[in-house]
Specification:
Low-confidence stretches: 1-7, 185-196
Largest sheet: 7 strands, mixed, barrel
Helix content: 10-25%
Strand content: 25-35%
Structural class: mainly beta
Mean pLDDT: 93
Number of domains: 2
Number of helices: 4
Shape: elongated
Number of strands: 20
Length: 311
Protein backbone atom coordinates (compact mmCIF):
# COMPACT_ATOMS: atom_id res chain seq x y z
CA UNK A 1 0.00 0.00 0.00
CA UNK A 2 1.50 3.34 -1.03
CA UNK A 3 1.42 6.38 1.23
CA UNK A 4 -1.17 9.09 0.55
CA UNK A 5 -0.12 12.54 -0.57
CA UNK A 6 -2.05 14.11 2.30
CA UNK A 7 -1.34 13.05 5.87
CA UNK A 8 -3.36 13.08 9.08
CA UNK A 9 -4.50 16.43 10.33
CA UNK A 10 -5.43 17.70 6.86
CA UNK A 11 -8.69 17.40 4.98
CA UNK A 12 -12.20 16.51 5.96
CA UNK A 13 -14.98 14.04 5.23
CA UNK A 14 -18.44 15.13 4.10
CA UNK A 15 -21.48 13.09 5.12
CA UNK A 16 -23.45 12.41 1.94
CA UNK A 17 -25.96 9.92 3.36
CA UNK A 18 -26.63 8.75 6.89
CA UNK A 19 -29.31 6.89 8.80
CA UNK A 20 -30.58 7.81 12.28
CA UNK A 21 -28.41 7.08 15.28
CA UNK A 22 -24.96 7.63 13.76
CA UNK A 23 -22.58 9.47 16.08
CA UNK A 24 -18.91 10.04 16.80
CA UNK A 25 -17.53 7.96 19.65
CA UNK A 26 -14.19 7.49 21.37
CA UNK A 27 -13.11 6.09 24.74
CA UNK A 28 -15.67 8.29 26.49
CA UNK A 29 -15.36 10.74 29.36
CA UNK A 30 -14.79 8.76 32.58
CA UNK A 31 -14.34 10.57 35.86
CA UNK A 32 -17.56 12.59 36.03
CA UNK A 33 -19.81 10.15 37.89
CA UNK A 34 -19.67 12.38 40.97
CA UNK A 35 -21.71 14.96 39.06
CA UNK A 36 -24.07 12.35 37.61
CA UNK A 37 -22.45 11.98 34.20
CA UNK A 38 -21.61 8.58 32.75
CA UNK A 39 -18.58 7.76 30.62
CA UNK A 40 -20.43 7.02 27.36
CA UNK A 41 -18.05 6.08 24.51
CA UNK A 42 -18.31 3.36 21.87
CA UNK A 43 -20.97 0.76 22.67
CA UNK A 44 -18.86 -2.04 21.15
CA UNK A 45 -15.48 -0.96 22.46
CA UNK A 46 -13.64 -3.91 20.95
CA UNK A 47 -14.87 -3.18 17.43
CA UNK A 48 -14.05 0.53 17.73
CA UNK A 49 -10.56 -0.24 19.03
CA UNK A 50 -9.93 -2.68 16.18
CA UNK A 51 -10.97 -0.12 13.57
CA UNK A 52 -8.48 2.36 15.03
CA UNK A 53 -5.68 -0.19 15.11
CA UNK A 54 -6.32 -1.13 11.48
CA UNK A 55 -5.75 2.43 10.25
CA UNK A 56 -2.86 3.10 12.63
CA UNK A 57 -4.64 5.44 15.05
CA UNK A 58 -4.06 6.01 18.72
CA UNK A 59 -6.65 4.31 20.97
CA UNK A 60 -8.29 7.63 21.81
CA UNK A 61 -9.12 8.55 18.18
CA UNK A 62 -12.78 9.20 17.45
CA UNK A 63 -14.65 6.89 15.08
CA UNK A 64 -18.15 6.86 13.61
CA UNK A 65 -20.66 4.50 15.21
CA UNK A 66 -23.30 3.80 12.55
CA UNK A 67 -26.59 2.21 13.53
CA UNK A 68 -27.52 -0.35 10.84
CA UNK A 69 -24.87 1.04 8.50
CA UNK A 70 -26.45 3.15 5.74
CA UNK A 71 -23.68 5.74 5.59
CA UNK A 72 -21.95 7.42 2.64
CA UNK A 73 -18.82 9.53 3.21
CA UNK A 74 -16.84 11.68 0.73
CA UNK A 75 -13.30 12.81 1.62
CA UNK A 76 -11.63 15.88 0.13
CA UNK A 77 -8.16 14.40 0.62
CA UNK A 78 -6.41 11.04 0.43
CA UNK A 79 -7.56 9.06 3.46
CA UNK A 80 -7.25 5.56 4.85
CA UNK A 81 -10.39 4.02 6.31
CA UNK A 82 -11.60 0.73 7.78
CA UNK A 83 -14.94 -0.61 9.00
CA UNK A 84 -15.52 -3.13 11.78
CA UNK A 85 -18.37 -4.25 14.01
CA UNK A 86 -21.59 -5.23 12.28
CA UNK A 87 -20.50 -6.44 8.81
CA UNK A 88 -22.19 -4.44 6.07
CA UNK A 89 -21.84 -4.20 2.28
CA UNK A 90 -19.00 -1.83 1.35
CA UNK A 91 -18.22 -0.19 -1.97
CA UNK A 92 -16.10 2.71 -3.16
CA UNK A 93 -17.41 4.96 -5.93
CA UNK A 94 -14.95 7.25 -7.71
CA UNK A 95 -15.77 10.72 -9.04
CA UNK A 96 -15.92 9.39 -12.61
CA UNK A 97 -18.69 6.96 -11.68
CA UNK A 98 -16.69 3.76 -11.40
CA UNK A 99 -17.60 1.54 -8.45
CA UNK A 100 -15.28 -1.02 -6.94
CA UNK A 101 -16.23 -3.63 -4.40
CA UNK A 102 -14.71 -3.70 -0.96
CA UNK A 103 -15.35 -5.48 2.31
CA UNK A 104 -15.70 -4.86 6.03
CA UNK A 105 -12.54 -5.46 8.04
CA UNK A 106 -10.47 -4.25 5.06
CA UNK A 107 -8.11 -1.25 5.01
CA UNK A 108 -9.14 1.01 2.14
CA UNK A 109 -7.44 3.95 0.44
CA UNK A 110 -9.80 6.70 -0.69
CA UNK A 111 -8.91 9.50 -3.08
CA UNK A 112 -10.37 13.02 -2.99
CA UNK A 113 -13.95 12.85 -4.24
CA UNK A 114 -14.34 9.11 -3.74
CA UNK A 115 -17.43 7.94 -1.88
CA UNK A 116 -17.34 5.22 0.75
CA UNK A 117 -20.79 3.63 0.71
CA UNK A 118 -21.98 1.36 3.49
CA UNK A 119 -25.17 -0.67 3.25
CA UNK A 120 -27.30 -2.33 5.89
CA UNK A 121 -25.35 -4.99 7.84
CA UNK A 122 -26.16 -8.63 7.24
CA UNK A 123 -25.65 -9.16 10.96
CA UNK A 124 -25.41 -7.07 14.10
CA UNK A 125 -26.44 -3.50 14.82
CA UNK A 126 -23.46 -1.13 15.00
CA UNK A 127 -20.76 -0.62 12.36
CA UNK A 128 -17.63 1.39 13.17
CA UNK A 129 -15.81 3.56 10.64
CA UNK A 130 -12.27 4.74 11.40
CA UNK A 131 -10.28 7.21 9.31
CA UNK A 132 -6.53 7.53 9.75
CA UNK A 133 -6.07 10.55 12.02
CA UNK A 134 -9.51 10.23 13.62
CA UNK A 135 -12.59 12.43 13.32
CA UNK A 136 -11.65 15.75 14.93
CA UNK A 137 -15.08 17.11 15.82
CA UNK A 138 -15.12 19.51 18.75
CA UNK A 139 -14.72 17.62 22.06
CA UNK A 140 -16.96 18.20 25.06
CA UNK A 141 -15.42 17.61 28.49
CA UNK A 142 -12.46 15.97 26.82
CA UNK A 143 -14.41 13.49 24.69
CA UNK A 144 -15.85 13.37 21.17
CA UNK A 145 -18.55 10.90 22.24
CA UNK A 146 -22.27 11.64 21.95
CA UNK A 147 -24.04 10.68 25.19
CA UNK A 148 -27.65 9.91 24.25
CA UNK A 149 -28.85 9.93 27.88
CA UNK A 150 -27.26 13.23 28.95
CA UNK A 151 -27.57 14.75 25.45
CA UNK A 152 -23.96 15.84 25.79
CA UNK A 153 -21.14 15.87 23.27
CA UNK A 154 -20.98 16.36 19.51
CA UNK A 155 -24.55 15.82 18.23
CA UNK A 156 -25.48 12.84 16.04
CA UNK A 157 -24.20 13.06 12.49
CA UNK A 158 -26.52 14.42 9.78
CA UNK A 159 -26.36 14.77 5.99
CA UNK A 160 -24.11 17.66 4.97
CA UNK A 161 -21.92 17.56 8.08
CA UNK A 162 -18.23 18.11 7.36
CA UNK A 163 -16.07 16.08 9.74
CA UNK A 164 -12.47 17.30 9.98
CA UNK A 165 -9.70 14.71 10.01
CA UNK A 166 -7.47 14.88 13.07
CA UNK A 167 -3.86 14.04 13.87
CA UNK A 168 -4.44 10.95 16.03
CA UNK A 169 -2.44 8.61 13.78
CA UNK A 170 0.34 6.79 15.60
CA UNK A 171 1.77 4.63 12.81
CA UNK A 172 1.17 3.50 9.26
CA UNK A 173 -1.25 0.55 8.86
CA UNK A 174 0.58 -2.78 8.83
CA UNK A 175 -2.24 -4.95 7.40
CA UNK A 176 -4.56 -4.79 4.40
CA UNK A 177 -7.34 -6.67 6.18
CA UNK A 178 -8.03 -8.68 9.31
CA UNK A 179 -10.12 -11.75 9.95
CA UNK A 180 -13.48 -10.84 11.48
CA UNK A 181 -14.20 -12.17 14.98
CA UNK A 182 -15.51 -15.72 14.89
CA UNK A 183 -19.19 -14.84 15.33
CA UNK A 184 -18.96 -12.13 12.67
CA UNK A 185 -17.08 -14.38 10.26
CA UNK A 186 -19.72 -17.07 10.61
CA UNK A 187 -22.47 -14.57 9.94
CA UNK A 188 -20.69 -13.28 6.84
CA UNK A 189 -20.38 -16.78 5.43
CA UNK A 190 -23.92 -17.99 6.06
CA UNK A 191 -25.90 -14.75 6.15
CA UNK A 192 -27.31 -15.42 9.60
CA UNK A 193 -27.86 -12.82 12.31
CA UNK A 194 -24.77 -12.10 14.36
CA UNK A 195 -26.67 -12.63 17.58
CA UNK A 196 -28.49 -15.88 16.77
CA UNK A 197 -27.72 -18.16 19.70
CA UNK A 198 -25.74 -15.35 21.34
CA UNK A 199 -24.43 -16.34 24.77
CA UNK A 200 -23.49 -13.58 27.22
CA UNK A 201 -21.23 -14.34 30.18
CA UNK A 202 -22.08 -12.78 33.54
CA UNK A 203 -20.67 -12.61 37.05
CA UNK A 204 -23.27 -13.04 39.80
CA UNK A 205 -24.11 -10.13 42.08
CA UNK A 206 -23.86 -7.73 43.68
CA UNK A 207 -27.59 -8.03 44.57
CA UNK A 208 -28.30 -11.65 43.61
CA UNK A 209 -29.36 -12.30 47.22
CA UNK A 210 -32.38 -10.06 46.57
CA UNK A 211 -33.86 -12.82 44.38
CA UNK A 212 -35.18 -16.30 45.04
CA UNK A 213 -32.54 -19.01 44.50
CA UNK A 214 -34.36 -19.95 41.31
CA UNK A 215 -32.94 -16.83 39.65
CA UNK A 216 -29.95 -18.76 38.32
CA UNK A 217 -32.10 -21.26 36.48
CA UNK A 218 -34.43 -18.56 35.19
CA UNK A 219 -31.54 -16.46 33.91
CA UNK A 220 -29.54 -19.25 32.28
CA UNK A 221 -32.15 -21.91 31.53
CA UNK A 222 -34.43 -20.04 29.16
CA UNK A 223 -34.24 -17.89 26.06
CA UNK A 224 -34.48 -14.13 26.47
CA UNK A 225 -35.53 -11.80 23.66
CA UNK A 226 -34.38 -8.24 22.99
CA UNK A 227 -37.30 -5.80 22.97
CA UNK A 228 -37.96 -2.85 20.66
CA UNK A 229 -37.25 -0.22 23.34
CA UNK A 230 -33.50 -0.94 23.48
CA UNK A 231 -30.88 1.72 22.76
CA UNK A 232 -27.40 2.90 23.78
CA UNK A 233 -28.64 3.24 27.37
CA UNK A 234 -29.60 -0.40 27.71
CA UNK A 235 -30.81 -3.61 26.14
CA UNK A 236 -34.24 -4.55 27.47
CA UNK A 237 -35.17 -8.22 27.48
CA UNK A 238 -38.23 -10.36 27.98
CA UNK A 239 -38.69 -14.09 28.60
CA UNK A 240 -41.41 -16.61 29.39
CA UNK A 241 -40.60 -16.59 33.11
CA UNK A 242 -39.45 -13.46 34.99
CA UNK A 243 -36.97 -13.42 37.86
CA UNK A 244 -38.70 -13.28 41.25
CA UNK A 245 -37.61 -11.04 44.08
CA UNK A 246 -36.97 -12.45 47.56
CA UNK A 247 -36.64 -8.97 49.07
CA UNK A 248 -39.63 -6.73 48.48
CA UNK A 249 -38.42 -3.49 50.06
CA UNK A 250 -37.10 -0.63 47.98
CA UNK A 251 -33.39 -0.50 47.22
CA UNK A 252 -31.73 2.88 47.81
CA UNK A 253 -30.12 4.17 44.63
CA UNK A 254 -26.55 2.95 44.21
CA UNK A 255 -23.83 3.06 41.59
CA UNK A 256 -24.11 0.81 38.54
CA UNK A 257 -21.51 -0.23 35.99
CA UNK A 258 -21.63 -0.85 32.26
CA UNK A 259 -22.84 -4.39 31.76
CA UNK A 260 -25.05 -4.44 34.85
CA UNK A 261 -28.16 -6.62 34.63
CA UNK A 262 -30.66 -4.51 36.52
CA UNK A 263 -34.00 -6.16 37.23
CA UNK A 264 -37.07 -3.87 37.38
CA UNK A 265 -40.36 -4.92 39.04
CA UNK A 266 -41.50 -6.91 35.99
CA UNK A 267 -38.59 -9.32 36.56
CA UNK A 268 -37.05 -9.02 33.08
CA UNK A 269 -33.40 -7.87 33.11
CA UNK A 270 -32.21 -4.63 31.51
CA UNK A 271 -28.60 -4.78 30.33
CA UNK A 272 -26.83 -1.42 30.74
CA UNK A 273 -24.73 -0.21 27.80
CA UNK A 274 -22.44 2.78 27.30
CA UNK A 275 -24.94 5.58 28.04
CA UNK A 276 -26.44 4.07 31.20
CA UNK A 277 -27.22 6.21 34.26
CA UNK A 278 -24.57 6.26 36.95
CA UNK A 279 -27.01 5.14 39.67
CA UNK A 280 -30.00 2.84 39.77
CA UNK A 281 -32.76 1.94 42.21
CA UNK A 282 -33.42 -1.64 41.12
CA UNK A 283 -31.22 -4.57 42.21
CA UNK A 284 -28.44 -5.74 39.88
CA UNK A 285 -28.50 -9.54 39.76
CA UNK A 286 -25.32 -9.92 37.68
CA UNK A 287 -22.77 -8.03 35.58
CA UNK A 288 -21.58 -8.93 32.09
CA UNK A 289 -17.94 -9.47 31.25
CA UNK A 290 -16.41 -6.75 29.02
CA UNK A 291 -16.35 -9.03 25.97
CA UNK A 292 -20.02 -9.85 26.49
CA UNK A 293 -20.88 -6.15 26.72
CA UNK A 294 -19.41 -5.74 23.24
CA UNK A 295 -21.51 -8.63 21.94
CA UNK A 296 -24.61 -7.21 23.63
CA UNK A 297 -24.06 -3.89 21.84
CA UNK A 298 -24.63 -5.73 18.54
CA UNK A 299 -28.02 -7.19 19.51
CA UNK A 300 -31.05 -6.22 17.46
CA UNK A 301 -34.67 -6.14 18.65
CA UNK A 302 -36.08 -9.65 18.46
CA UNK A 303 -32.70 -11.36 18.84
CA UNK A 304 -32.45 -14.33 21.15
CA UNK A 305 -30.03 -14.27 24.08
CA UNK A 306 -28.90 -16.79 26.66
CA UNK A 307 -26.89 -15.95 29.76
CA UNK A 308 -24.10 -18.03 31.25
CA UNK A 309 -22.85 -17.54 34.80
CA UNK A 310 -19.05 -17.69 34.88
CA UNK A 311 -18.39 -16.42 38.38
Amino acid sequence: MSAPTVGPGAGAVTVVRVGPGTSTQDLGRPGFSDVGLGASGAADRGAAALANRMVGNRPDAAVLEALLGSVTLRPDAHVVVATTGAPCPVEVASADGRVRGAAPYEVLMLRPGDELRLGVPVAGLRTYVAVRGGFAVEPVLGSRSWDSLAHLGPPPVTVGDVLPIGDAAAAWPVVDAVAPPLSVGSALSVGQALSVGQVLDVLAGPRDDWFLPSWRGLLTGQEHRVTQDSDRVGVRTTAAHPLVRAVSRELPSEGVETGSLQVPPDGHPVLFLADHPVTGGYPVVAVLTPASVDRAAQLRPGDAVRFRIVG
